[in-house]
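thought: fold this chain, then report.
action: predict
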Amino acid sequence: MNQTPTDSRNDIIITEHQQQHIAGQKEKSIQKRLILLLHAYKCQRHEITYPNTCIVPYCNTMKNVLQHMIKCDKYRSCTYTHCFTSRQIILHWRQCNNSQCLICQPLQTRINLAQLNQTTNNTNDSLIPIPITINKDWQRQLTQEMRRGYIQKIITAIKSITDAEVMRDTSINNLDDYIRHIEDEAFKIAHNKEEYLHKLAETIYKIREQLDDRREKRHLQENGSTLERIETIHENYSHLSIDSSSSTTVIESQIKSSTHVDNEHKKTEINASSKQLPKHPVQFTPEDLRTHLEPIIKKLLDYKDSYPFKKPVDPVALNIPDYPTIIKYPMDISTMKDKLLREEYKTPLQFCDDAWLMFNNAWLYNTKGTSIYKMCTKLSEVFAEAIDPVLQRLGYCCGRQYVYLPQFMFCYGNQLCCQILHGRNFYYYNNLDPSRLNLPYNKYTFCDKCFNSAKGDSIFVGDDPTQTLIEIPKSLFSSAKNDIEEQETMIDCIVCTRRWHQVCALHLDQIWPEGFICHTCIREYNIKRRENRYIASKLKITDLASKLEKRVNDFLYYEGCQTGHVTIRVLAANDKICEVKSRLKDHYPNHAHDGYPYRTKVIFAFQEIHGVDVAFFGIYVQEYNGRCQAPNTKRVYISYLDSVNFFQPKHYRTDVYHEILIGYLDYVKQLGYVYAHIWACPPNDDG
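observation:
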């Protein structure tokens, strides 16, 4: 068989050309990712003031990656899309000193401290005092002494956080002149004093950020082999696998574990119960607080329905003389702004407390249907949406106010058939003698309707209507309103003293007796908390729980549902007797027995969501087996069931509930039970 001869040398030339082309495409893809990451980082801060304005494709994707990377400590093993590869790209960008780098060199246009000397030299002429045309009222109110004071504050703030090694760097010799130049420009172009101060705060933030970069780079160089490892990354760029068909590049790094830069900085692990646990109370400078909180103030002031809250309430002008009597601690946006500028806030939570004080005052004084009440509700939603990401960046859980609404109370009138809803008036009697027959409790409550419908000057009280009721004079009852709200408990981090909502922290002293440690400190100081032993999977498993759990997880698997594992456990199982009341015995003298024995069970289902077991479904059942007398023989009664809408994905919730119920009925059917009854809530007044 004849074959056409080929020139193998040409094959080699073509292959090398293709390889060079592929390498160039990889470098461009990495550069595109770097551009997106740098843009997303700046865009995050910009969106604090101007939310949802960015139109750059995939910006939100990179923002999510950056937010994830802040909390992620899995490094190479992390499965979050773009996490590890983006971390490698950012590390390379921050540490690259190669002026010929094909990835970084085209992007080295940002102003850093190494360029400050050149910048100020080029602008020395512009730093010579030149008369400025003052044509704005706020400029006339700002004296030269005040401007010099602001400049000195900026210089002091920057130098106070800069170590001596960085201060000796010749590239920041002209830092003072540079700041004066920036202040001068801000004074010229700002439209008002607030914008002027905001630009100064931005200057501090940017310079401090660049100083931190310089300090970290110097620290990396002192650690010996770091730069060699960066060079290894350069040499291995040709082995990075990039899917150029995707606009968001997927990089599968071939770098060996020995070149993993993140491990270079991994700190010694500290046990949470150790006596050597670091103590670093967090402190915020006034500049930090203004930088983060002034955009919130601006957002509140710019909101269309905020005008009733911009200035203090004037009871005389508004003809509301009772306002000072009802509202003990008034608050408004302008007062919050003044306190921020006067540096009265020491933590961002104090700012949040004042904001919620303002909202609560409006809700307290105005009734629910009024326009002010509705405007306050909308403004509080705007505030909560804006403040949450800011506080989370500062290491807190959120900026919201969580309260538990008043619980429904039982009314002892009408044979315990009605309830006292929150916000309703009621009457209560403090029982000073709980030893009396049929009055074992300290407090007895009556709704307004039942109390007033009782004829005469007394009312009959008792826990059991079938027993003798006690007559209590109405004069011994006190009136009240079911409106007492309970605030969510706040807990302090034992390392940095940041305050978190206990419900946000998911902390219990019974599990972690050493105290609460926030996620920021766990990540920053490499603290290892003790393992939570109180999880659903470690509860005792029964045959019923095993079968229900297998049924549900098999259903989710065959549906192709990628979700957290569902754990089902029987939390309680006890033998009880259903007692027959005397009136029922009198009505059915030949059929009613003294009691019907049954076994009660409590079954709960949990789903692991973000590493936490969440109870999403529970049922209470009563099982009357074959030894129980008729008519309850071989019957099961689902006496109560409830669910919360936390199961993910949500479109499988109802199916999972059905699987649990059908699985339970199938289980008891195999045990010989014949009948099943289910509890149903009686219809309310609305049908």
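thought: worth noting. Residues 72 and 370 are 46 Å apart (CA to CA).
final: tokens above.
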